[in-house]
Amino acid sequence: MRRRGRPRKYTHKYRCPECGSNWCVKNGKSRDGKQRYLCKECGRNFTIGAERSKKPESLKEQALKMIAESSSISAVSRILNISSWTVSTWIQREGKRLLKEHEKKAKTFAKKFEG
Q: Which of 15, 79, 82, 103 has its CA at a distance of 20 to 30 angstroms from the CA of residue 35?
């Protein structure tokens, strides 16, 4: 059975770094003028040759310690020379991780006293 509408436009040169699909279309340009692509399979935007810069784990630990010692997000970002958005994301992720860990411990603790 044939599909209706326009046929898929495949880009054989590029593959999505997320899912590996070659069903990618042009999707504008980045700030520095590089071509941006959109994967029609998973919806990810990507630029060819661009690697995400990951901050060192030690920097993340230092930022979270500073937050725990009641420093503000803007102060931490200014001192460590990182974006306040990055610090906020780290705080949210660490909070979710700690909440899951707490719930897991609470379940095991409750099982001890049940039976």
A: 82
